[in-house]
Amino acid sequence: LMVFSAAWRLIAGIWGIFCLALLRTVGILAANSESEQNEHGGMLLLDWRNH
């Protein structure tokens, strides 16, 4: 049971990282397509903070 729960914890961690990466990628893509005329697309975090 200890090994089983450890495996599930590992799987849950991998899924959590994967979901976060997916959400971040989708958010960056959405922000890029939303502001294509905006030249500094690399400063997404700063733009997002200023809104």
Automatic annotation (TrEMBL):
Superkingdom of origin organism: Eukaryota
Protein name stated in the entry: Uncharacterized protein
